[in-house]
């Protein structure tokens, strides 16, 4: 399963209205820790893609979402279920911590 590119425009439809649990990664291209997390997020998408939806939000390009979810530092990774944030990780997080939250 591929990782969705989430934007201010498609977030509501893809995430908030999703019947699946969603894993959302707020990142920036210039962010070192974000680059470290990228393969972890990709691996989770590969392993759990049938059960969950995985997407990434470029925080530089989607200020509406950054403001709405009060993203203060990146990477911020959220588990969203039925339109609600169930879990939030800030900074480099282990794959196990994320998969346990799912």
Short description:
The chain is α/β, with parallel strands linked by helices and 102 residues long. The chain has helices spanning 11-16, 32-48, 63-68, 95-101, and strands at residues 4-6, 21-27, 52-58, 76-81, 84-90. It has a five-stranded mixed sheet with strand order 1-3-2-4-5.
Would you write up a description of this structure?
- β4 (76-81) and β5 form a beta hairpin.
- The protein is globular, with a radius of gyration of 12 Å.
- The longest helix is centred in the middle third of the chain and has 17 residues, at 32-48.
- The protein contains 4 helices and 5 strands.
- It is α/β, with parallel strands linked by helices and 102 residues long.
- 35% of the residues lie in helices and 29% in strands.
- The model has no long low-confidence stretch (mean pLDDT 96).
- It has a single domain, classed as Glutaredoxin (3-Layer(aba) Sandwich).
- The two termini are 16 Å apart.
- A 5-stranded mixed beta sheet has the order 1-3-2-4-5.
Q: Return the domain count.
A: 1
| CATH-scheme architecture | 3-Layer(aba) Sandwich
Rg, Cα atoms, Å: 12 Å
Fill in the CATH topology.
Glutaredoxin
| CATH class categorisation | Alpha Beta
Instruction: Classify the oligomer.
Output: single chain
Q: Assign the CATH superfamily.
A: Glutaredoxin
What's the total number of strands?
5
Give the CA-CA distance, first to last residue.
16 Å
Strand content: 25-35%
What is the SS-derived class? alpha/beta
Strand order of the largest sheet: 1-3-2-4-5
**CA-based shape:** globular
State the share of residues found in helices, binned by percent: 25-40%
What is the average per-residue confidence, as pLDDT, rounded to a whole number?
Answer: 96
């Amino acid at each position: 399963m591929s990782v969705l590119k989430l934007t201010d425009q498609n977030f509501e439809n893809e995430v908030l209205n999703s019947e699946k649990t969603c894993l959302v990664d707020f990142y920036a291209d210039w962010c070192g820790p974000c680059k470290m997390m990228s393969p972890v997020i990709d691996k989770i998408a590969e392993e759990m893609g049938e059960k969950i939806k995985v997407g990434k939000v470029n925080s530089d390009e989607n200020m509406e979402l950054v403001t709405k979810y009060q993203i203060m530092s990146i990477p911020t990774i959220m588990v969203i279920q039925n339109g609600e944030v169930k879990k939030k990780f800030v900074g480099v997080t282990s794959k196990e911590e994320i998969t346990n939250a799912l």
